[in-house]
Amino acid sequence: MEIERLLLGAKNLVRTGWMQKGVPPAIGETVAEHCFEAAILAYAISLKLKENSINVNPEHAAILALFHDVGETVLGDFPKWATERIDKRDAEKEAFKVLGLGEDLFQEFKSQSSLESKIAKLSDRLSTYLQSLRYIKQGYDVKEIKDSYVPEIKSIVSSYPFSIIKDFIYGLLEDKDF
Question: What does 110-148 look like in DSSP terms, one character per residue?
Answer without folding.
Answer: HHT-SHHHHHHHHHHHHHHHHHHHHHHHTT---HHHHHH
